[in-house]
Design a protein that fits this description.
By secondary structure, the protein is an alpha/beta fold. It is globular and about 55 Å long. The chain is about 40% helix and about 15% strand. The protein has one domain: NADP-dependent oxidoreductase domain (TIM Barrel). It starts with 5 loop residues before the first strand and ends in a 16-residue tail after the last helix. The chain has eleven helices and ten strands. It has an eight-stranded parallel beta sheet. The chain binds NADP nicotinamide-adenine-dinucleotide phosphate. NADP nicotinamide-adenine-dinucleotide phosphate binds next to helix 10. The site of NADP nicotinamide-adenine-dinucleotide phosphate (NAP) has 28 residues, from helix 10.
Amino acid sequence: MKPSPRLSLNNGVLIDQVGCGLYKVPPEDAAGLVTMALEAGYRHFDTAAMYGNETGVGRGIGSLSSFVSPEDARGGSGESSPSLSREDLFVTTKLWNDDQGYDATLRAFDTSMSNLGLEYVDLYLIHWPCQQRGLYPESYRAMETLYREGRARAIGVSNFQPAHLDRLLQSAEVVPAVNQIELHPWLQQQELRTLHGELGITTEAWSPLGRGQVLQDPLVLDLAAAHGRTPAQIILRWHIELGNVTIPKASSYARIKENLNVFGFSLDDAAMDALAGLERGFRTGSHPDSVN
Ligand SMILES: NC(=O)c1ccc[n+]([C@@H]2O[C@H](COP(=O)([O-])OP(=O)(O)OC[C@H]3O[C@@H](n4cnc5c(N)ncnc54)[C@H](OP(=O)(O)O)[C@@H]3O)[C@@H](O)[C@H]2O)c1
């Protein structure tokens, strides 16, 4: 399987457009799932302190030397090292709500690094703004420290609404590289996607399949039949066409492979227009203003 193409974040760091989501993967299954995803060609992994599986994810990452390097898999000269190294991976983790604040963020980061067994992460995100706590500008200042120290190659946010981005940018010195938000055909986040484009922030879609529910949409089923693809592949291809980074979560090797196999076809304007019509403001998760 070919690895995912990469996008450039606003600081030049490259991110695989399709990554492996790890929410609700039990800690005891995480190492096996990461190993399976590496085998399928994934190089980008999305975890969080809150998922409770960073240790298992780290163990799975520890198996990377048994896999072929992306240069080889991308059809390079064949002269490069046959095994993967840490630099070939993109690992994201997130700061949990209870750890917001400057010092607490630094401590939480150390705990995540120790759990993952890593020297650095590729992306560190504030998991939720937690508006009532009012600590996200301070938490972000700590993340800027980690960024300058090279312990996080990129920093960003998750579940930030326009007002949160606006307030953050009043004090931030580093524009967030990413805002990871719930995004799928039933919740298309047009306002945030436009704002991200203006600010140079990459849109990353969580619950890209609407936790599986959007797979049953009649239009998605029709497009799948017309393209000889699965419903999941149609939705993931829609994310690719929009320029989103996306991190579907699946439990079996067959689905993990299926979800990465979305680069050999495209959706035309008529299909994209039809999919744009599916917006219905449907959330599978919490509204960011209700999480504190
Ligand atoms: N920042 C945040 O606040 C936040 C919140 C939620 C999620 N996330 C991230 O986003 C990732 C993905 O979101 P998600 O897990 O909520 O939802 P999702 O990826 O939209 O959907 C996952 C569901 O779809 C099913 N599925 C996956 N591939 C499939 C396929 N090819 N065919 C049929 N069913 C398929 C999975 O089933 P099986 O597992 O049974 O295979 C699972 O039930 C998470 O794992 C996490 O990394 C971030």
